[in-house]
Design a protein that fits this description.
This is Tetratricopeptide repeat protein. The chain is an all-alpha fold and about 525 residues long. It has 28 helices and no strands. α6 packs antiparallel against α7, α14 packs antiparallel against α15 and α15 packs antiparallel against α17. The two termini are about 50 Å apart.
């Protein structure tokens, strides 16, 4: 337990910006105590370490005794949070409202009930303005407490008004909770296996929607209700491969913030997540014009220095931008341009490694591998695919594990390492069977690659064309679409048949895509 607390302190200090560190030191000096110098010394020593080393720390901390260290670390952690709270209270609406509620409680405890109610009334107006439902509920309950115990000379209907207001907020809060429950359950299902069209995971997704969806009129919902509803609907359609409807609800999600511009700076994480999901659906639906439009919007978020000074937003932006920058290179076929940015992405992975979700890291590794594969650099593709395959937790993004194994088979075939290929084909087949990831597409590809080393050169082209036709047929079957979302097998075969690079074929597709009609951008 002590080590976990130490990790928390170390991570918190490492997450601070230069200005936050400077403000913390000013805060300590303003509120200096007998222990102030000691925990400031502890702060400086931990800040200089790349990895937490308590033995080295105690050697350098000459004024700190071993028995003092545990209490000093706990005190330092608390003071850091207090300092950060003071820094963000003017920029974070939720913190500001909570501070007003605290002031009202102080006045209440001193018997200044009317002053307390006045502050609560102002705080509630701000909370309504920014749709802070939980804080509205807290304020109403506090107002009811004052009104029920003390004569405040309020209007005669005040008690009834507060009761009705409380019931209305309860109904809204309950719907928000139900919608958010649906979203997190569907997201959890996606993390296990990825996309699904039918089978057990589709049934589970349908059951979540049927069990949780309440009765409502969408036009009567408030901002947070709509946000959580669109979040849940988007995950359902994204999970079940209905990308048009996933696109529709992502567009509604992002449009909410355009309609309520006050909400962008107060909920930048949800706005950024909406953009991220929008770009994912545009990419998978081949809505390339829409993808380019929203990619520019994403880049504009990255240019907002105020947002990029928030560590959480900086981390979210890094993972989103990295993902979609690579997707953009898949779209326009500029693989070499994409490879030039890989060192920058790896630097970001290193910088944010303590905070990034494992599934995000695995997803980026897979996309980097595909980038190298598209550029015919199979050895480097294998390097990143092995980073996925050696990850022991296959319950997390089992879909990526499965397709990483399939892609590595193709890489070894391209390298003509046929001795190892036979073993790899068998182990991949066993893995896909065990994990229930063996679609007909995978069966066809594995059978196809097993045959290729034994064919004569003049037989190869007919074999490529035969299997290309077979895969094209499978791609038109919704139940077999899933493998094509992770690995473009058709373009790989076209590369063999037409004797063109995958980059060149991608560029040709990119130009052709703009002749296709995309859905209108309207919130309907």
């Amino acid at each position: 337990m002590a080590k976990q607390q130490t990790d928390h302190l170390f991570q918190l200090i490492k997450s601070l910006s230069k200005s936050e560190k400077r403000n913390f030191k000013l805060y300590v000096k303003r509120n200096s105590s007998s222990e102030g110098a000691k925990f400031l010394q502890l702060f400086d020593l931990i800040d200089k370490q790349d990895e937490y080393d308590e033995k080295l720390l105690m050697k350098k901390a000459k004024d700190i005794k071993k028995v003092q260290l545990s209490n000093l670390k706990a005190h330092l952690y608390k003071q850091l949070l207090t300092s950060l709270r003071l820094n963000y209270k003017n920029n974070d609406i939720a913190i500001n409202i909570r501070e007003q509620i605290d002031y009202a409680k102080i006045l209440y405890n001193r018997g200044l009930y009317m002053q307390s109610l006045k502050i609560l009334d102002k705080a509630k107006a701000v909370a309504y303005k920014y749709s802070r439902l939980r804080q509205i509920k807290t304020i109403i309950e506090f107002e009811k407490r004052i009104e029920s115990q003390f004569i405040t000379r309020s209007i005669s209907s005040r008690a009834e008004d507060l009761t009705q207001e409380s019931k209305k907020v309860d109904i809204i809060s309950n719907r928000i909770s139900v919608f958010s429950d649906m979203a997190i359950l569907l997201y959890g299902l996606f993390l296990k296996k990825g996309h699904t069209y039918d089978g057990a995971h589709r049934e589970e997704a349908d059951a979540i929607m049927e069990a949780h969806m309440p009765m409502f009129e969408e036009q009567e919902l408030c901002f947070p209700e709509k946000l959580n509803l669109y979040h849940a609907k988007q995950w359902y359609y994204f999970l079940t491969q209905d990308f048009f409807n996933a696109y529709r609800y992502c567009y509604k999600w992002v449009s909410l913030f355009d309609e309520e511009p006050l909400m962008k700076p107060t909920m930048p994480d949800m706005y950024l997540k909406g953009l991220d999901n929008m770009l994912n659906t545009c990419f998978l639906s081949a809505y390339y014009g829409k993808f380019e439009y929203f990619y520019k919007v994403l880049e504009q978020v990255g240019e907002d220095e105020t947002l990029m000074n928030i560590p959480n937003i900086k981390i979210l932006y890094f993972s989103s931008w990295s993902n979609h920058y690579i997707n953009y290179r898949f779209i326009d076929g500029e693989f070499e341009k994409g490879i030039e940015v890989i060192p920058k992405i790896e630097e970001g992975l290193q910088e944010h490694k303590r905070h990034l979700d494992k599934q995000i890291i695995l997803s980026l590794y897979y996309k980097i591998a595909c980038l190298y594969f598209g550029n015919a650099d199979y050895k480097l593709a294998i390097k990143y695919l092995n980073l996925i395959i050696t990850e022991r937790n296959t319950d997390l993004r089992g879909d990526i594990h499965a397709f990483a194994r399939l892609l590595i088979v193709i890489c070894y075939f391209e390298l003509q390492e046929y001795d190892y290929l036979e073993y790899l084909l068998k182990s991949t087949y066993r893995y896909l069977m065990k994990e229930e990831e063996l679609y007909e597409v995978q069966r066809v590809v594995l059978r196809f690659i097993r045959r290729l080393p034994f064919l004569l050169p003049d037989q190869l082209m007919d074999e490529f064309k035969k299997y290309r036709a077979l895969l094209e047929e499978l791609r038109n079957d919704p139940r077999e679409l899933r493998p094509f979302l992770y690995l473009d097998l058709i373009i790989w075969l076209d590369h063999k048949i037409e004797q063109k690079s995958i980059a060149q074929l991608s560029q040709e597709r990119y130009k052709m895509a703009f002749t296709l009609k995309e859905p209108e951008l309207k919130n309907s």
